[in-house]
Amino acid sequence: MADQANPAPPMDERVKAIPVWRRALIRPELGGICGTILVFLFFIATASDSGMFNAQGVLNWSTVSAQFMIIAVGACLLMIAGEFDLSVGSMIGFSGMMIAIFGVTLGWPIWMAILVTFAIAVAIGALNGYIVVRTGLPSFIVTLAFLFILRGFTIYLPQTIERKTIIGGISEAAEGDWLAPIFGGKILEGLFTWMGDAGMIATFERGTRAGEPVVDGIPMLIVWAIILVILGHILLTKTRFGNWIFAAGGDAQAARYVGVPVNRVKILMFMFTAFCATVFATCQVMEFGSAGADRGLLKEFEAIIAVVIGGALLTGGYGSVIGAALGALIFGVVQQGLFFAGVESSLFRVFLGVILLFAVILNTYIRRMITGER
Amino acid sequence: MNTRSTHQPIVQMKDIEKHFGSVIALAGVSVDVFPGECHCLLGDNGAGKSTFIKTMSGVHKPTKGEILFEGQPMHFDDPRDAITAGIATVYQDLAMIPLMSVSRNFFMGNEPIKKIAGIPFFDKDYADRVTMDEMRKMGINLRGPDQAVGTLSGGERQTVAIARAVHFGAKVLILDEPTSALGVRQTSNVLATIDKVRKQGIAVVFITHNVRHALAVGDRFTVLNRGQTLGTAQRGQITPDELQDLMAGGQELAELEGSLGGTV
């Protein structure tokens, strides 16, 4: 009916029809997809006999990638909302240290230490956001201040309280705790034991763990990464709030004008970034059993690099969580893969710089095709 | 033409004054807007057009004077109040977000919700369908609802913004110089859109400094000059030359025109 009442206007003869395959390919994640394929091809060609792709090797690089993914999801949504957070790395160190001080020095139950730490971290994220939207200062500057403030406290507090910069003993304190395994535990252990018994994955041949599979489960770190990526993707693309994130970063004034609560969106995204950093910190503290004052150094840049490789626009309004996750995967695979391939480890930075440059150039072309920018 | 006087004006602006510090931007401007008419507000740069429509749309509060909306005195604290009441403004460059798709732009701030297992999701199918439908009504042929606004021409962007305001129930549509940056073809498209909107019974306030654009669609014309109205004229009661003279303050333009050989 509608079609009869309003016949389609004639096609503009100057608009070229775009083939279906091209439309399916032209998406924000394309750069990330290409990069992932290239990186895997490269390492399959150069490092396939080094154990990079057996169970242990896969676990190795997927754990590293998952770490990047967790902070990249937060950084990605925040960047699409038009802001930066340079305090992510310091927040990781700070949150880990808070858990250690509450749980070990003060002797609180670990679940309480974790929950209180999350509350503090998210509150600091909210403060970051509040200062940015209230003052109108660039978030680059505001969060740079917090990079130093939080790192300073992370070094000062343990030195004053414990006279050292690393607090250990968290594994012992977390023994029998109900919340700690959510961050430090593993899942599917039964499946991996069965796979070990069935000879599908290698088992230890000697030592105290003889007969156990070399990989005895999937670390919760990886589970958190996958959950955060899926939730972040759904939030961004399938909800009203996701539309507000795009709008807040695309043109805050135009968004405000149609009633989008831009300030609330931005503050919530700062809080979510702090939450992701704390998830990272908690998993790390549970894995290592200790908190160190230098943890998380430079992580803010690694998160931003992963997000940019994944196709997000630095100035906001455009990007993809899936792309950011692929960026994190590329990052992790390259970092660990060079080790497997026996390449001098200092070359990692060279590789990273080259990938970053190529990804951003490719992404810029893709974005122009989609959005008609010139 | 006098059928209009049988019904009430939807917006009455009475003796509006607006001072910014020592500058008197508006010195007592009165304008009535009726449903279904296109009221053109003309004036040269600095005449007070922008201040006037910003007062109407709730951005500025008048220093003196009264705003009646559907006969009731209104006090808008911010643009949201005006939008809720049914006064929508389409700004020339602040209408759309180029990086976002047409359908996401169209429903920005008014996203339709579809609940799946109790969780509210953005109802993209509905948004896409309505967007395509509305665009077809306005004569814009989209490749698809996912097409980014950045790929549209300036005129098409204005049209999308107008269609959006109408879809969400605007009773008064204020257009701030919608044609000033457009080419000939795009301008005619926007003017055609204004005509369609007016025929739906919506009051259109069309700000421009181009007399030809105003005469193409306007029912009534109000000229602002140095913060004051020089009166409102009905269609057919005024010639383009008279309008042009009123806008530029007669005498001076006549001298200028002489030096330019009558081409302005």
Structure description:
The complex is a heterodimer of chains A (374) and B (264). By secondary structure, chain A is an all-alpha fold. Chain A has one domain (29-366): ABC transporter involved in vitamin B12 uptake, BtuC (Orthogonal Bundle), CATH 1.10.3470. Chain A is built from 17 helices and four strands. In chain A, strands 1-4 form a two-stranded antiparallel sheet. By secondary structure, chain B is α/β, with parallel strands linked by helices. Chain B has two domains: 2-96 and 170-260, Rossmann fold (3-Layer(aba) Sandwich); 99-151, no CATH class. Chain B has nine helices and twelve strands. In chain B, a hairpin with a 2-residue loop joins strand 1 and strand 2. The longest helix of chain B is centred in the C-terminal third of the chain and has 16 residues, at 184-199. Chain A binds chain B through residues 2, 6, 8-12, 15, 18, 238-240, 242-244, 246-247, 250-251, 253-255, 257-260, 313, 317-318, 370-373, and chain B through 79-80, 83, 91, 94-100, 104, 107-111, 113, 120-122, 124, 133, 136-137, 139-141, 143, 148, 150-152.
Helix fraction of chain A, binned, reads 55-70%
The overall pLDDT of chain A, averaged over residues, is 87
Count of helices of chain B?
Answer: 9
Distance between the termini of chain B: 31 Å
The CATH homologous superfamily name of the largest domain in chain B equals P-loop containing nucleotide triphosphate hydrolases
Low-confidence stretches of chain A: 1-8
Rg over C-alpha atoms of chain B, rounded to the nearest angstrom: 20 Å
* Number of strand segments of chain A: 4
The appropriate CATH architecture of the largest domain in chain B is: 3-Layer(aba) Sandwich
- In terms of DSSP E residues, the strand content of chain A is under 5%
Task: Give the biggest beta sheet of chain A.
Answer: 2 strands, antiparallel
Q: State the domain count of chain B.
A: 2
Radius of gyration of chain A from the CA trace? 23 Å
CATH top level of chain A?
Mainly Alpha
Beta-sheet strand percentage of chain B? 25-35%
Instruction: Provide the number of structural domains of chain A.
Output: 1
Number of helices of chain A: 17
* Corresponding CATH architecture of chain A: Orthogonal Bundle
